[in-house]
Amino acid sequence: MAVVDVQQDLDNNQLTMISDFAAPVERVWQVWSDPRQLEQWWGPPGYPAAVTEHDLTAGGKVRYFMTSPEGVKHHGWWEVLAAEAPHSLELRDGFGDKDGNPTEAMPVSVTQVELTEHEGGTRMTSTTTYASADQFKQVLEMGMVEGSTQAANQIDALLAA
Q1: How many CA atoms lie within 13 A of 47 on its CB side?
Q2: Which residues contact 101 (CB under 8 A, 6 or more apart)?
Q3: How far is CA 45 from the centre of its chain?
Q4: Low-confidence residues of the chain, pLDDT below 50?
Q5: Is 26 helix (H, G, I), strand (E, B) or coil?
Q6: N or C: which end of the chain has fewer CB within 10 A?
Q7: Which stretches of 9-65 are DSSP H helices?
Q8: pLDDT digit string (tens) for 73-100?
Q9: Cα–Cα nearest to 3, from 161, 136, 120, 155
Q10: Angstrom distance (rounded) from CA 38 to CA 76
């Protein structure tokens, strides 16, 4: 299991997830920067992702969809706010409509990812912040903690391949 800690800060509408990997920082960065590798872990098991646009530079965009076991496509998007390979990434993250366009009626978060050397491997700290308590509550009820934990735990197998 890669995820070693998950903290919910209800006062600040924030979820922090800490994961440790037995691989160098540069290798863990690749699971974010290579769209084919991102597809192998982004989303919970049983919801394979397909990345349709991937520009992981400041101002860049990432668009993807996940397909449920029933065949329903769930679209999402990122707007890359900052990227400092191989150590940090900041992005706006939201849901998309059936064509992949941002759906402003759904919660939008800002996520900061930090990759640091830790005990011969890499510690990934992901901090996701929502603008309101209602948005944070909505994604928690949708299973954000479970889905994000399952997704991050898939990185170990990818790194071992």
Answers
A1: 16
A2: 77
A3: 14
A4: none
A5: helix
A6: C
A7: 25-33, 35-38
A8: 999 999 999 999 999 999 999 999 988 8
A9: 155
A10: 13
